[in-house]
Design a protein that fits this description.
2% of the residues lie in helices and 52% in strands. The radius of gyration is 19 Å and the shape is globular. The two termini are 23 Å apart. By secondary structure, it is mostly beta strands. It has a 4-stranded antiparallel sheet with strand order 1-2-3-4, with no helix packed on it. The chain has a 4-stranded antiparallel sheet with strand order 5-6-7-8, with no helix packed on it.
């Protein structure tokens, strides 16, 4: 962690393509990461990042923040996982595993905390989901044959939602140590998220959005996709009543229960990385320039290159 004036007051800390983002609506904590290994943590409702961490291993594609915002998890292309305290970047837990051939099959592509923050699940390039108890360091379980695209933890702590090797959503029941199937999603799934109450899942598929009731094991709502610009990411709204889908040019917002289309916003990112964020500042699309483009707000200022401070005054250019 650094504490220079530039780091403290720079509103756009990333100078490389933004590759991952996470938000905790309870605490308002936001964490973002880029290809150069920089992790930026914005605590509470502050405008600028409070904590900047430069990882010695670049290309970070997986970040998560625990419920309540106290812990941040980061995974990189070398298979290294690190959990640190969000307020001071002190390392709480770390793990690095490589295969014997030295390949990067264990590259981390998704990571998420259990609701109580005591366990961590990671999804790797080799298709395995690994779950570990952070207090003891003990491996809880390893589950193979998943696509390295999407991972989410049930709000009740019962299990995980991932996309299996056949491209279909699957529930990993951690109590029974088994995978449970879902209703067939035509064309396969790209991303899957639990609803806030854990009673249903929102699936981003090739043909659009699907809502699956977990108790009934049935698709209860479907919204056909507009194929004009492609679908890149799926994020849930902070109030849990809506979800948003990022495309190459726009962000589409849907009601989380009926999947009714609520609005379409041009995000304005000229070269989006495919990462979306929905935090207390609103919706945002990440760009390869290292900037966030927010369609509901004025464009963000260019990256800060110089900062001068005297007393309570700060000047940035």
């Amino acid at each position: 962690m650094t504490s220079s004036l530039l780091d403290r007051w720079c509103p756009e800390p990333h100078d490389a393509p933004i590759t991952a983002a996470a938000y905790d609506p309870r605490s308002g904590t936001t964490v973002t990461a880029d290809e150069f290994g920089l992790v930026a943590v914005r605590l509470g409702r502050e405008r600028a990042p409070s904590v900047l961490v430069e990882r010695d291993r670049p290309i970070l594609r997986a970040v998560a923040v625990s419920r309540g915002g106290k812990r941040v998890a980061v995974g990189d292309e070398d298979g290294r996982l690190v959990v640190f305290a969000s307020r001071d970047a002190s390392v709480l837990w770390a793990d690095e595993r490589k295969d014997e051939a030295g390949h990067r099959d264990l590259a981390v592509r998704a990571v998420c905390f259990a609701p109580d923050g005591r366990s961590l699940a990671s999804l790797h390039l080799d298709g395995r989901v690994r779950v570990v108890d952070l207090d003891s360091g003990r491996r809880i379980g390893t589950f193979p044959d998943f696509l390295p695209t999407s991972l989410d933890w049930d709000p009740a702590g019962r299990g995980l939602l991932a996309i299996d090797a056949a491209g279909q959503p699957s529930f990993i029941d951690l109590r029974r140590r088994e995978k449970l199937g879902f209703p067939l999603i035509p064309g396969g799934a790209r991303a899957a998220r639990f609803t806030a109450d854990g009673q249903a899942a929102i699936i981003l598929g090739a043909g659009g959005l699907y809502r699956v009731d977990l108790a009934e094991q049935a698709i209860t709502a479907h919204r056909a996709a507009d194929r004009s610009s492609g679908m890149l990411d799926l994020v849930s709204g902070p109030d849990a009543d809506a979800v948003a889908v990022l495309s190459a040019r726009s962000i589409h917002v849907f009601h989380a229960t009926s999947l009714q289309h609520l609005r379409k916003l041009r995000h304005g990112a000229p070269d989006p990385t495919g990462v979306a964020l929905w935090d207390d500042l609103g919706l945002a699309a990440a760009d390869h320039s290292g900037r966030w483009y927010r369609p509901e707000h004025a464009p963000s200022v260019p990256p800060t290159i110089a900062v001068f401070g005297r007393g309570d005054l700060r000047l940035a250019s």
